[in-house]
């Protein structure tokens, strides 16, 4: 025979479990601590801009941009996967983070910008469309000129085997290192230097990509491009900057001119 549980006596106390999670009353004269505990603050700093599950950390926000790039730029599956995996808002100032998943370039300091996602997607897709990358499914050993904030370097790390990225501005080089370290991105060597000389110690490169454009391609890039490799770079041609694709076949460099683009200038020396 079942018996109905007896109703709680009036004036019943809360169940013990709720009592345990209730904060203890501060002792008389105790100092109130408005800061978060150190471990929690460290977790928040790693996460940087938004708590997970809402706002910018949401996969849905990133997925909406990627769907647009797939549609409008024809970004390949591999590029889309990389774009989904790398949090772009992590690479810009927190004040600009709400714009991180719009298709726009944003300032990163020192008059430089993080490239527009559609342009990044286009350059990466062109690289992956090279004969060797199509055969192997990887960008192989990559040289990037113009690290900036390190966003594209993080994408390249997911698409290639090893990435060397050169930046001429020391503060940006340092900032990129901090951003990539915080995300635990592996396989990227950051070099502070004038990228017009490429980076001979790790040459030859299967893929070379430049995020800054000059009047012509520095000869070092062509020299350091592996046989069968592909280079994608903005270059000034007939008055306007265009995207140039170069495929190396032995001692031949086959050039293909693509659409007009607008990248920051390729400068000389380091600062
Ligand atoms: N790759 C970045 C874009 C950076 S903008 C991204 O993920 O969005 C282009 C960068 O090229 C700037 O930081 C600029 O300082 C750098 N740059 C310009 N000339 C250079 C050179 N000669 N060597 C290396 N970096 C250069």
Please describe what this structure looks like.
By secondary structure, the chain is α/β, with parallel strands linked by helices. The protein folds into two domains: 76 residues, no CATH class; 124 residues, Rossmann fold (3-Layer(aba) Sandwich). 32% of the residues lie in helices and 24% in strands. It contains nine helices and eleven strands. The strands form three sheets. Strands 5-4-3-6-8-9-10 form a seven-stranded mixed beta sheet. It has a two-stranded antiparallel sheet with strand order 1-2. A hairpin with a 2-residue loop joins strand 8 and strand 9. Helix 3 runs antiparallel to helix 4 and helix 4 packs across helix 7. The chain is globular, with a radius of gyration of 25 Å. The site of S-adenosyl-L-homocysteine has 24 residues, from strand 2, helix 7 and strand 4.
Which keywords apply here?
alpha/beta; two-stranded antiparallel sheet; binds S-adenosyl-L-homocysteine; Rossmann fold; about 270 residues; 2 domains; 9 helices; globular
Bound molecules: S-adenosyl-L-homocysteine
Question: pLDDT below 50 for ≥5 consecutive residues: which ranges?
Answer: 5-27, 47-54
- Rg from alpha-carbon coordinates: 25 Å
**Share of residues in helices:** 25-40%
Secondary-structure element order, as H and E? HHHHEEHHEHEHEEEHEEEE
Q: Which structural class is indicated by helix and strand composition?
A: alpha/beta
What amount of the residues lies in strands? 15-25%
Count of strand segments: 11
Q: Gap between N and C termini, in Å?
A: 87 Å
Within CATH, the superfamily of the largest domain carries the name Vaccinia Virus protein VP39
What order do the strands of the largest sheet run in, or round the barrel if closed?
5-4-3-6-8-9-10
Mean pLDDT: 86
| Name of the CATH class of the largest domain | Alpha Beta
Mind telling me which CATH architecture of the largest domain this is?
3-Layer(aba) Sandwich
Inertia-based shape = globular
Q: What's the tally of helices?
A: 9
Please give the domain count.
2
Q: Under CATH, the topology of the largest domain is which?
A: Rossmann fold
Largest sheet: 7 strands, mixed
């Amino acid at each position: 025979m079942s018996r109905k549980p007896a109703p709680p006596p009036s004036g019943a106390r809360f169940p013990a479990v709720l009592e345990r999670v209730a904060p203890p009353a501060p002792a008389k004269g105790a100092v109130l601590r408005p800061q978060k505990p150190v471990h929690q603050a460290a977790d928040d700093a790693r996460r940087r801009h938004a708590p997970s599950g809402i706002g910018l950390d949401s996969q849905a926000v990133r997925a909406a941009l990627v769907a647009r790039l797939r549609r409008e730029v024809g970004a390949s599956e591999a590029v889309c996967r990389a774009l989904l995996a790398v949090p772009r808002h992590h690479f810009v100032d927190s004040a600009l983070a709400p714009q991180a998943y719009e298709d726009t370039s944003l300032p990163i300091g020192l008059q430089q910008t993080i490239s527009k996602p559609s342009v990044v997607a286009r350059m990466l897709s062109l690289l992956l469309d090279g004969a060797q990358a199509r055969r192997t499914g990887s960008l192989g050993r990559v040289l990037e000129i113009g690290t900036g904030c390190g966003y594209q370097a993080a994408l390249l790390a997911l698409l290639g085997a090893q990435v060397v990225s050169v930046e001429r501005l020391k503060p940006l080089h340092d900032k990129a290192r901090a951003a990539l370290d915080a995300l635990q991105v592996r396989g990227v060597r950051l070099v502070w230097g004038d990228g017009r000389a490429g980076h001979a110690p790790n040459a030859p490169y299967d893929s070379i990509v430049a995020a800054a454009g000059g009047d012509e391609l520095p000869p070092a890039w062509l020299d350091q491009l592996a046989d069968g490799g592909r280079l994608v770079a903005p270059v000034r041609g007939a008055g306007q900057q265009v995207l140039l694709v170069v495929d190396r076949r032995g001692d031949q460099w086959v050039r293909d001119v693509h659409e007009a683009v607008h990248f920051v200038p390729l400068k000389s020396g380091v600062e």
